[in-house]
Amino acid sequence: MAITLADAAKNTTDDVDLTVIDEFRKSSAILDALSFDPAVSPVGGGATLTYSYTRHITERGADFRAYNTEYSKAEAKRERYSVDLTPLGGAFEVDRVLGNLGPSATNEVSYQISQLIKATRAKFSDSFINGDQAVEANGFDGLDKAVTGTVTERTAATSWADLASEDARHDALDELDEWIDTLDGLPTMILGSDKGIARLRSLARRAGYYDRSPNAFGVEVERYRGIPLVNPQEKAGSAEPIIGTDATSGTTSLYAVRFGLDGVHAVSTPGELVKTWLPDFASAGAVKTGEVEMGPVAVVVKRTRSVGAFRVTVQTPAGTGS
C-alpha cells in the first residue's frame, strides 16, 4: 500500500525523525502530496534496487462499424521503463564543544540539520522537474524529460508578457484551460517559476478563478480553479531557480501533474522513509558526524498524460524593447 510522508510520520517512533519528516512536509508541497509505493524489497541473493514498470504512452480510439466492414486497426501503446532507487540526503560534521552551545532550537546541530533538510528538499524538487539519468546516473528522470514531445506539451500562442487587453487575457485563459484539459484528470498541482505563477495569479484574479487558503501547517496556498499553484524555489546550494525563465526568449514553463499510482508517484523500499543520525557526543572523538537521509527513492511517470508542460512567454524577449 502506498504511503505519504504524513503516513510515515505516524509510523515513526523517533521524535527526531518525526520532526524531520514534518519539516520536509512543511517546506515542500511536492513531498507532502506525493505518494510513495514501498514496492522494492532488496531481499535475497541477486536482489537489486531497481523498479520496472509499464508506462502508458498512447491512447486508442473507438468507432462505429458499418455492416459488412471491418473496424480500422489501432492499438494503445505502452513502453517498459525502469529506474534505480538511490538514497538522497547528506552528512555534516560538528565539534563536540560547539555542538550543543546555545538553545536546543538554534544550536549548531539543529542549524545543520535544518539546512540539510532544506538542501535535500531542494535537490528532490529539482530532480522531480529537471532530473535526467543521462546527466546524473544516480538520480531519476523528471517531469520535463517525460513530457517533452507528448500531446500534453503545449506552446502558448498568446504571450503573457503583455495582457493589457481583455481579449488577450481571455485568449490566454482559453489556451491554459485547453492545456489542462489534455491531461487524463484534474492536476494535483501546477508548478511554475516566480514569473509564471505571478502571471497566472494575475489572470486568475481578473477571471475570478483565484483563491488562497492555509494548509494543515498554516501556510497560505494559492489556487487556480481549485488547483494549488506551487513554486519549487531554488536549486540546492544555489540561487538558481528550479524552474527558470529564459532571459533571451522570455519564456518559462508551467507543469501540471496528477499524483497517483496510475499517474506520477514515488517508489521506496519497505521500512523507514526518512532517517536521521545525530552526532554521538557520548563516545570518544572531538569531531562528530550527523546525517539525514531519505529513501532509497525514485519517481516514476506511469502515464504520459498525467503530466503536462505549458511553454509560455512571460516577459519581453531581450532586444525587442521594454
How would you characterize this protein structure?
With 322 residues, this protein is α+β, with helices and mostly antiparallel strands. It has 2 domains: 5-57 and 78-143 and 262-303, Major capsid protein gp5 fold (2-Layer Sandwich), CATH 3.30.2400; 151-259 and 305-313, capsid protein of prophage fold (2-Layer Sandwich), CATH 3.30.1930.10. 27% of the residues lie in helices and 27% in strands. It has helices spanning 5-11, 15-27, 29-33, 96-99, 108-130, 143-147, 166-180, 194-207, and strands spanning 36-37, 50-58, 77-84, 86-95, 153-155, 189-192, 210-214, 220-224, 227-230, 251-257, 264-268, 274-277, 287-301, 307-313. The strands form 3 sheets. The protein has a 7-stranded mixed beta sheet with strand order 5-14-10-6-9-8-7. Strands 1, 4, 11, 12 and 13 form a 5-stranded mixed beta sheet that branches. A hairpin with a 2-residue loop joins strand 8 and strand 9 (227-230). The protein is globular, with a radius of gyration of 23 Å. The model has no long low-confidence stretch (mean pLDDT 86).
